[in-house]
């Protein structure tokens, strides 16, 4: 007897694809801020490199290889920012008078506009140092943020403080790991000149009372060259190779709660070393807008001065030109 085929149809259930959620800090429970760093209008080569330096500074929560096209307008970046969880824009532009940096919170603002009086690239900072230090794993964690001189009580300074604090992830000092604190961004406000010094440093801990030779020996695990020495003790006590930390004051030393690497051990004193890695900028807050690069002006340094109008018109022309190109 012929076998009757089973005509029962198989049912295929389409898997439910969960919407990718924005990254959330598992310790603080806060949403991790992310950023886009891009330009509006044409920039000279040095400002383009400054843009790349700022992207590197904002790692790991930024798009390091963000591609820009002339026809892209602000709405294009905003449309992409939503699904990717991007919370802030850092926008570089240049007028006939000076370069500018706009720091905006998406999607509805506010927007802070800074005039860049001076800047130095990360490469320039490294060339000025005898031993530049910038290992690749330095950028695995977001930098710490320290603001100094912003406590005058003025409303625009309070808003500036909050804006920069929200750009970087918050930390819990009770649970944070020392190994994740490798960089620091320092902003110092001078109330007399109304200028902000923007600096970017790497953080390094060195045990107090240990010579540089011994630190290198423990870190690298390489047998040192002892051919020209009479005794092993000469390697430790040789003149000219004393501890770089012995001259540090007590305020620059900390007692570690846990081990950090092979050299810094728990319950021992270590000296905190800061080494600038760049970029470096001197900024001046000139305007605060209520919206995203638009809206009511909350604060204006120049009032109705011609320079303020020129900067505003230049930015509006750039945005309008991009809108026409995209049509």
From TrEMBL:
<dbReference type="Pfam" id="PF04427">
    <property type="entry name" value="Brix"/>
</dbReference>
<feature type="region of interest" description="Disordered">
    <location>
        <begin position="303"/>
        <end position="327"/>
    </location>
</feature>
<feature type="domain" description="Brix">
    <location>
        <begin position="33"/>
        <end position="294"/>
    </location>
</feature>
<dbReference type="GO" id="GO:0030687">
    <property type="term" value="C:preribosome, large subunit precursor"/>
</dbReference>
<dbReference type="InterPro" id="IPR007109">
    <property type="entry name" value="Brix"/>
</dbReference>
<feature type="compositionally biased region" description="Acidic residues">
    <location>
        <begin position="316"/>
        <end position="327"/>
    </location>
</feature>
<dbReference type="GO" id="GO:0019843">
    <property type="term" value="F:rRNA binding"/>
</dbReference>
<dbReference type="GO" id="GO:0000463">
    <property type="term" value="P:maturation of LSU-rRNA from tricistronic rRNA transcript (SSU-rRNA, 5.8S rRNA, LSU-rRNA)"/>
</dbReference>
<protein>
    <recommendedName>
        <fullName>Brix domain-containing protein</fullName>
    </recommendedName>
</protein>
<dbReference type="InterPro" id="IPR045112">
    <property type="entry name" value="PPAN-like"/>
</dbReference>
């Amino acid at each position: 007897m012929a076998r009757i085929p089973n005509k029962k149809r198989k049912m295929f259930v389409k898997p439910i694809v969960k919407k990718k959620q924005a990254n959330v800090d598992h310790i603080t429970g806060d949403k991790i801020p992310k950023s886009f760093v891009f330009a509006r209008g044409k920039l000279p080569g040095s400002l383009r490199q400054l843009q790349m330096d700022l992207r590197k500074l904002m790692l790991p929560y930024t798009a390091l290889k963000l591609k820009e096209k002339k026809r892209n307008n602000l709405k294009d970046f905003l449309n992409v920012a939503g699904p990717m969880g991007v919370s802030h824009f850092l926008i570089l532009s240049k007028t006939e008078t000076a370069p500018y940096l706009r720091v905006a919170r998406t999607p509805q603002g506010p927007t802070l506009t800074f005039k860049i009086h001076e800047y130095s690239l990360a490469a320039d900072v490294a060339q000025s140092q005898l031993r530049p230090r910038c290992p690749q794993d330095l950028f695995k964690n977001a930098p710490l943020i320290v603001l100094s001189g912003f406590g005058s009580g003025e409303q625009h300074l309070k808003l500036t403080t909050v804006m920069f604090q929200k750009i970087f992830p918050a930390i819990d000092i009770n649970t944070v790991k020392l190994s994740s604190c490798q960089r620091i961004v320092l902003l110092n406000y001078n109330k007399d000149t109304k200028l902000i010094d923007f600096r970017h440093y790497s953080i390094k801990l060195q045990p107090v009372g240990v010579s540089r030779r011994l630190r290198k020996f423990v870190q690298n695990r390489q047998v040192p060259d002892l051919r020209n020495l009479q005794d092993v003790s000469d390697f430790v006590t040789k003149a000219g190779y004393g501890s770089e930390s012995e001259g540090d004051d007590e305020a620059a030393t900390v007692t570690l709660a846990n081990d950090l690497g092979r050299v810094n051990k728990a319950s021992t004193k270590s000296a905190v070393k800061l080494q600038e890695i760049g970029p470096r900028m001197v900024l001046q807050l000139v305007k605060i807008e209520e919206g995203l690069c638009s809206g009511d002006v909350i604060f204006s340094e120049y009032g109705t001065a011609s320079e303020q109008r020129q900067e505003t018109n230049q930015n509006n022309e750039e945005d309008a030109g991009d809108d026409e190109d995209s049509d």
